[in-house]
Amino acid sequence: MQHAPNPADLPSSAKLIKSTILAAVVAAFLLVVAILPAEYGIDPTGVGSVLGLTKMGEIKTSLAHQVAEQNTVAPITTLPAKPTQQGVAESVETVTTLRKDSMELTLVPNEGKEIKLALNKGERARYLWYTDGGALNFDGHSDSVKLKIDYKSWQKGTSQREEGELVAEFDGKHGWFWRNRTSKTVTITLQVEGEHADIEEAI
Predict the structure, then answer these.
(1) Total domain count for the chain?
(2) Which one, 25, 122, 177, 187, has the greatest CB density within 10 A?
């Protein structure tokens, strides 16, 4: 059989309020005196230092800061790659200056004229020559004062138009001699692009 509690045995409202206030005061006292110094190193009363709780709190706080710093990811900075010695190659570029020239010669019947380029051995010149009408006899040849070469022919024929590349076999003058064997006056146009140092009509 269950018995109802005697009202006289139950705490009154005033006692409950007092107990609650007392518990709150004790909790606040413990917070200030023990918990704050031990956990956070904060000691408003100075009791924590006497009891050694403040030192404990400072150690905990320091450790917490260290852990936070270790967990912080530092931004990654990408540095430009430095070439290794093996991958370094110096590029040496030789710039060749090309010049363009265009000349015209007029030949009356049976007249001959000559144009020469100054080229050193191995130098090149692209050429195109053509007449305004009739075909001319021509002779492509070279000479060199330095090498004492008076004449060396490399092309002969009769034509209204010729084009190609002239490669100097030696240092000297290289060019063409034309003769007009027709009965009319003929004009020759010569266009040259290459490494020649000079171009002139030979007298």
Answers:
(1) 2
(2) 177
Please, is 12 exposed, middle or buried when counting C-beta atoms within 10 Å of its C-beta (0-12, 13-18, 19+)? Answer: exposed
Let me know whether 106 and 175 are in one domain. Answer: yes
Q: Specify if 105 maps to a domain.
A: yes
Mean pLDDT of 17-31: 74
- Segments forming the whole domain that contains residue 175: 99-202
Tell me whether residue 115 is in a domain.
yes
